Amino acid sequence: MKAANRHPGRKSAGSADRSHGRQLVDDIDGLDARPILRPDLKIGVVLWPEFPLMSLAGLVEALRHAADFGDNSQRRRCDWTIMAHDPSLSVRSSAGVTVRPDRSYQDPADFDYVAVIGGLLRSLSSAPEGARAYLRRAAEAGVPVIGICTGSFILAEEGLLDGRRACLHAYHLEEFRESFPHVRAEANLDYIDDGDVLTCAGGISIISLASELIRRHCGPDRATKTIHQMSVANRADATPLTVTQALGYTRVADPRLRRAVLLIEQSLVRPISPQWLADQVHVSRRQLSRLFAEEFGQSPGAFIRTTRLRYGRWLLQNSSESVTEIALRLGFSDCAHFIRTFRQEFDTTPGAVREARARSDKVMA
What we know:
Blueprint: H1 13-29, E1 41-47, H2 53-67, E2 78-83, E3 91-92, E4 98-99, E5 113-117, H3 131-140, E6 145-148, H4 151-157, E7 165-167, H5 173-179, E8 184-186, E9 191-193, E10 197-200, H6 205-218, H7 220-229, H8 240-243, H9 255-266, H10 274-280, H11 285-296, H12 300-318, H13 323-329, H14 335-346, H15 350-364
Parallel strand pairs: 1-2, 1-5, 5-6, 6-10, 7-8
Antiparallel strand pairs: 3-4, 9-10
Helix pairs in contact: 1-7, 1-9, 2-6, 2-7, 6-7, 10-11, 12-15, 13-14
């Protein structure tokens, strides 16, 4: 028997939660009205025998949610293709579920990334026909390759991780280090982006990597929608989305403020003003200032600056971009201005953050 609502004129808490969740998605989808000429992000996928379903599902579901408005599953802003030498032959996962590839191998240049999802270690020697050659071809063409789960073993076997860092699940870490001592293997991370080669531990970590790729190519609004729709908004891992606070801001109740924050997230690398922000959310500049003060204890301008600096700190810790490149990317007039503002915010310098990362890398090597 259904429980009766004691207050017929009042929405239940569950109803309010559903309304808030749908409103958030509507707000995000309303941020970008660009005509869609081609997908912003295209990923080619190669599956190894006995691959983990979670790694494939996490990647594809993240792209699916970012790709379209609402929950319509149309591949508008993102697209993915599962490939094999003979697409008529299904690939068996470690759980016994089979997946049939979409097509045979296509030109790697058609994709923004080519990802390989490795299988159980006993199956790594059972390479699908043409798979290793295709991965090498992608790397030679300058297309970034991604090793997911034991896909890192496959990339290492092909020499694509020589002298690089690689992200491994802790379960496989020691075996990887013994097999590939020339690769700096690390665990307890979601992923490592080493430029044209990316590695991911697999499992739920694939959602963090997929969300970051979506953020880069489609914008922070699409990434925020992905993690909201996949119900991982309360994860506390140090991902790009938590650093820029895209996750925490989804809990902002006022729809005007929520939209303003999403616009800031979408504009991390282009200049915006508090007045422009007020115009976009249809409030006066004074009203906008009051909203930010009540929720964050900051003015809109200070909030914009703080968010960019936090993103800059994440780039220092996780990317290979120089301090000058990061400063210019975030809209600072010069490197000195960035360093001065960074010191005021964090009581340290960008150089010190980079040095701390280098020491950490050396310890882990």
